[in-house]
Every structure is written in structure tokens, then in C-alpha cells.
Amino acid sequence: MNSLQLLLKPIVLTLSLLGLLLPQSTIAATPWRVIYRPPNRGAPSTTGTGGSRPGCPAMAKPIAAIAPLKSNWGETIAARPTLWFYQPYQGDAIELNLLDETTQTTAFKQIYKSNKSPGIIPLKIPETAPALKINQLYRWQINFICNGKTQQAYNVSGTIVRRDVSQNLNYKLKLAKPENRITLLADQGLWFDTVNEMALMMRSAPKNPIVRQNWRSLLSQPEVKLDNWKDEPLID
Description:
single chain, alpha+beta, Immunoglobulin-like, six-stranded mixed sheet, globular
């Protein structure tokens, strides 16, 4: 062993020991994974109507709002959020209602067209609608009108509340990459923002295995329990 090797040996040993002591996150990048952490509040499970409806086709899979089934509670920081909904077939129309829980008055009501194909569709609250009030509870109900002549419909409902975004979170969200934004939103328990951005990413990169894995994992988490719908297509 020459003199140079003798000089370098302590340095190599020190670096090796340092590598053992450092957290693994400093050695290798952590794979991207979305984990939804629900807020510590809520109400009884999301309700939906089952059974058959006169004049309506049978459903191979029931309607579903893409919202946690364990509780009917979902939060957002959006003034006019988007709700995602699974339709089993083309209905005559889809109706979204928002009821102000304080005043018991209708805050928003709109009819949407039903897509020709089964799948998960967005129900976007338009910019012309009044903004949701911060910390105000709203009861949402989606009516899947399967027969327009008789107004027969299946429905599902739940609760949404808009939260104020802190300066710190707002700053982080502005600087974050798309995948990191979703991670931040999920960690803050902001379901409707998390699932909306995740769904939009799925649409833009449907064949990306990491994106698809996170979408399927998000819907399968114990707090969500939407396993039956995790492989349904996202449609317009």
C-alpha cells in the first residue's frame, strides 16, 4: 500500500460510516406516494340510493361520488371546487345541489349532461356561481336522473367545507411541482383538491405507471374505500 492509499483510507472509512448514520432519504430519493390524511371530524357515512327505478336500466356497478365512503366529509380550499362522480351508463341528466347547512337554503344547483360512456366525470362548479364561504358547511347531493320523463333518479350525498389556506401552505403550493402539490393537499386533508388534481394528472398521463398507481392507491386507502371504482375510466 503506497502513501496516497494510506492517506485516503481514513477518509473513505469516515464517509462509509457517515452514510450508515444519515437518513435513507438523503441517500436515495423517496418514491412519490400520495397518502390522504383525513381531518379529525365528519359525519355518518355517505348516503346513496340503491334498488331499482322504474324505467331505468339496471346498474352493473352503483353510482358513486369520488369522496371518502368512511365518512361523508370532504374539505377544499377552492372557492368553486370540482366534484367527481361515477356514472354506470348514460343517464338523461346529472344534477348537483349544494345546500347551506346554516340557512338551509340552496347555494348552488346545476344540471350537467351525462356522458355516453360509463366512467368517472367531473362536475365543475362554474366561475359564475357564488364562491363557497370559508368554514361554512354545505350539504351536496348528486342526482343521477336515469329517466327524464318520470324524473326517476339515484342519488348520493355528503358534506363539503371550504377552508382558508394559510400563508405557509399557499407559499408551498405555489412553488411545488404538480406531484408535490398533490402530496401537500392530501397531507392537509383537502380531499376535493387532492382528487381533482390527481384526476387531472391521470388524464394528462394515463399510461404513466406511477400516476396510475397513486390514483388507485388513493381510492383504495382505508379512509376512502373506493376500491370498486379505482379502475374506472376518467371521461369528460
